Amino acid sequence: MIADRRGLLLPLVLLAVLALAGRPAAANGAHPDAWTYYSDPAGPYFVQVELAPYTGIVHVAVFASEIGSGSPVTDLAVTVSARPEGDGWIERPAPVGPLTSRRVAAKEFGTDLVVEPAGLWAFTIALHGAPGTAAVDLQVPLTKQGSLGGLLPAILLIAVVVLVVPVFLLRRYYRGLRETPARPDIFEE
């Protein structure tokens, strides 16, 4: 009986871990849904910019290295700003920033911007360091992050529990029927 419980417990624990792992990160570092929007030379630097294309708190991760040596540049002043682009706005939102990035890892500079509402936004990343100055402009269509995406692992966990628990209980019930001896029929003689 303990082996049966372990057999049921292990898949449930794994599904619970997967459900929790499906949540977006709230700490520094690239967002799990981050896309690379720029990965090219800019001035004396090779710059890579990653961000998740969702409204709300947008974490902009900037990676910079020297073009000649390829070594990461860590003594940079990086600023990030965002402004709405295009004419499709009901009410044009205010620009965001510029905000100064901080170094969050050996090669990464990160900034958190609050960007609302959904639509086309232009991001400007300015880099100032000893090798020189550079600026990167990119346009990103930001959308609202769907609530179903965050709930999908939890929905799957509930569905598996609803399916696995009855199967487990039925299996125990039928196994118990096979193990108990048949009762004599008192009407037959």
CATH topology term of the largest domain:
Immunoglobulin-like
CATH level-4 homologous superfamily of the largest domain: Periplasmic metal-binding protein Tp34-type
Q: How many strands appear in the DSSP assignment?
A: 9
**In the residues, how many domains can be counted?**
2
Structural features, described:
This protein is α+β, with helices and mostly antiparallel strands and 189 residues long. Helix 1 runs antiparallel to helix 2. The two termini are 38 Å apart.
Topology (SSEs and partners):
Blueprint: H1 2-21, E1 35-42, E2 45-51, E3 56-66, E4 77-84, E5 96-100, E6 102-103, E7 108-115, E8 119-129, E9 132-142, H2 147-179
Antiparallel strand pairs: 1-2, 2-3, 3-7, 4-5, 4-8, 6-7, 8-9
Helix pairs in contact: 1-2
Any descriptors?
9 strands; single chain; five-stranded antiparallel β-sheet; 2 domains; alpha+beta; Immunoglobulin-like; 38% strand; 189 residues
Kindly summarize this structure in a few lines.
The chain is α+β, with helices and mostly antiparallel strands and about 190 residues long. Helices cover about 30% and strands about 40% of the residues.
